[in-house]
Specification:
homotetramer; 291 residues; alpha/beta; 6-stranded parallel sheet; 9 strands
Chain lengths: 291, 291, 291, 291
């Protein structure tokens, strides 16, 4: 099918490429033109504006944060201006407040809106192994399903209110950060007590905690792979802020979130803006006087 | 082989039974006599004191806490008195300080000491599916290995200092409690935001967090199985205290532990001493005004 | 002198009245007209818009939050439109980001900007006993000093960058909330341990902690004066959010802030949006199973 | 009156000297003899054991921790052995559990027991400006009052159960540590935001927080007086542990205590065992990447 794609970062570029591979016709737009040109060579058509990308009738957005999404949706050459009665599939990790607002604006404009954020790092995006979490009108999800099938290994439908998908995505990222923090604290205790951290985490992530997140992140912690960042600490902080905003909006205390937020701030303050969020483990070690 | 077994609670009774099934000769001792008599019917020999159980040459202890273990080891009819040059295999979840002290006392007395705590709830003990984490002299672990094989699905050796095994066990329990707390916070946010908790946790524990702990405890949280307790909240609090003592001894800050400790205190204060530690999720819900 | 005054809530109305009493000519503006009319009877002149109030040459704003201040400054009849080369004295508790932005906008427009938030509850405002914390160009503070003298008992100058005053105000409110939380935790421990809370807090706030904040808030806690709110919990939460934003902007972890934030969320979730922030103490008691 | 005094550290020596100055006859005992000899020159009589000191009929203990107090009370030459029907005035900062146990042991032995911990650093002890917090039987407090009058500026009676005084003392120390942590966080935010910390804390501790604790500790924080320790961080950690034990015993969550505990652990881990607890502020700064 014909689809617009806005936002060609490390995630978006891989996703747009997979849409092309699956036979879809893709109109790409990106703020910096070089990435769009690269995809043009793979068969994409380059759109002159977000509005022109949206004129395809279905448009996917995959951008860094709330401000970027809002910037691309509004304005005279924005998505709302070009979409007509079409469908906006918002796959970025954004806040629930913005997601609710976009839903209302699309409804007012006669267009349609789905939230469909994804789980997976760039390698999973390239391998079309993402998990897609979709929420919105059933018919709209059905319409987008062929696209999701080209991008991920599985789609989860979590309700008809689009921001429900954003909540699930934010909770997932919260749980990942909580797992990193937890392993970091346990590894620090072990190290200071003279216990081999690799043996301990190996034992635990090979049995009780034998899941992708624990296996992946225990390896990253033990190998101290802080740079270059696969997912930079400030992006984790952004997610922590979005979780906090959602929690504040509904009046839900989340004390582990407070710990994560402070750890990320310490990590960035001590190590710089460019480290991977896994460096939370380094900040935990430093707090205990190690290194 | 001939082995003494001291402590026949829900874990210990199942373990002693498995030793019998595997063909070992077991001398059992328990503070209240009824449980020892039950195992006698399965072929165990009933010892008149911990010392008499220890006279088997190898003795396993599986007791509720530091005080119980200390009480059974010391005194005129205690394990130290009866063990001679034999081997004490301490499988209880105890603190590192006591474990280090027992190691020193055994050495002074000419006897031997292993720490070999286990992961698994009573059902896993009954099914001989425990994970055994052993630390101590290699030759002593070799000697005990046939017993571990009868009790668990796998043994992990984590060093020669016995208390290393206690650290690993305590870190594991810390990580379990952190996982419960994390899921409780995420589920509370979801519930207040109108998102189906079961769908969300099902999605996350079926993919990124697809591990025994997350699957088991997300089910318990969603089903609100607070009573009768499989593992009572005060036992979790005891473990949290032992982790805290170990962390304090080596000067390691653990902020998530602080969150867990307070959540367990709130849980017990609000719900009583008899709830399962999974009721941490109930206290999280109440803190957000739910129920 | 001639001065505009925008924002006639319980703080602002009392402040504007004091300016009149001190002999200044005051042009008042308020979103709902009734409050402006009341001051008209005391000799104020009613302005038709914020711009008209600003045309006095000096204009004070005293509003509830960032959005209210921003709304009153911008737009065709906003303060920027009417101020010319005049001076905007921003006395509301707002975030540092907005304060920095207002400073830049005023500079670009050829007008001048001071931040001068105040400490004190409505009774202190009525008694002209506020503490004023001012930051900005020295000459501008000198110009506004006669107004500050009419409003407060003392003015503190904390630098030339206006947002420095907002930082001081936010830190002060953070410290007040930390004091409430601390006393709430201590009182809860005392109550559960069978110690008379009033005797304990009386002893401590009469000696080591003998300061206005501790005396005032220990009384409010002990008397359980939760309603009507002198300062509503959601306003405290707003301040906690502004502190958090400032901390996030400069990468400063603040773990006590996390505790405060969660306590306020629990307070509001359990007790409603209308309780005083002192009800943090009630939420602390409930978390310990009291009441 | 005749009184025994056990424990001549920096606090105890100053207190015993004040008893002598006030005309009381004092029998001193200390583990290391030199300090007792010094007081002998001021007119004290040196006792050969805690029992001999207790034989005076009233004995004050002023020791570092629970273990030291327990060690001096028990045994063949301990206080219980020598006190007869006399009165033990326990002025050390100890835990509520030990205090309750001592009360029971004294009752069983036919002797009497008061808890009367004090607030004040060594300089206040030397100036007889301590605050005494006493709990126990009214008649016993009356009997000890002349001694308290020689030691402090004021005595507060907080109930008939001795451990009530220990709770008040522990809550006071908790509140002091919370004030240090709070000021440390605020000062760190200010410093990173380019605001003068001294101006800010000066403003706040000169107005809203104008109390001895805030004035004293803000000065110590700003002057970075970390060594030599007036009150060493590990002693603060001991107090935090005692507060935690009391809170755990009565099931009272105290999240700010968790923050304090972790900050003290980080402080000691990073700076060593010999720093003043005011170095919590240094650890806060480091966590934010300062220095």
């Amino acid at each position: 099918m014909e689809v617009g794609f806005v936002g060609l970062g490390s995630m978006g570029a891989a996703m747009a490429a997979n849409l092309l591979k699956a036979g879809h016709r893709v109109r790409v737009w990106n703020r910096s033109i070089a990435k769009a040109e690269a995809l043009e060579r793979d068969g994409a058509r380059r759109a002159g504006s977000p509005a022109e990308a949206a004129a395809a009738g279905v448009v996917i957005t995959m951008l860094a944060d709330d401000a970027a999404v809002s910037g691309i949706v509004h304005g005279t050459d924005g998505i709302l201006a070009g979409l007509g009665g079409g469908l906006h599939v918002s796959m970025s990790t954004i806040g629930t407040e913005l997601s609710d607002r976009l839903a209302a604006e699309h409804q007012a404009a006669g267009s349609r809106y789905l939230a469909a954020p994804v789980f997976g790092r760039p390698a999973a995006a390239a391998a079309a192994k993402l998990f897609v979490v979709a929420a919105g009108r059933e018919a709209d999800i059905d319409a987008a399903q062929p696209l999701f099938d080209a991008l991920g290994q599985r789609t989860f439908r979590v309700g008809t209110r689009p921001s429900a998908a954003n909540i699930v995505k934010l909770c997932g990222n919260f749980m990942i950060m909580a797992a990193i923090e937890t392993m970091a604290e346990a590894a620090t205790l072990a190290a200071k007590a003279g216990v081999d951290e690799r043996e301990m985490l190996g034992m635990l992530t090979g049995t009780l905690f034998d899941s992708p997140i624990y296996r992946t992140y225990s390896e990253l912690i033990l190998d101290e792979r802080y740079r270059p960042a696969g997912f930079a600490a400030p992006l984790g902080l952004k997610d922590a802020r979005l979780v906090g905003q959602a929690a504040e909006a509904v009046r839900a205390p989340m004390p582990v979130l407070g710990v994560i937020r402070d750890r990320l701030l310490a990590t960035i303050a001590q190590e710089g803006e460019d480290v991977d969020w896994v460096a939370m483990a380094l900040a935990a070690r430093r707090s205990a006087g190690l290194k």
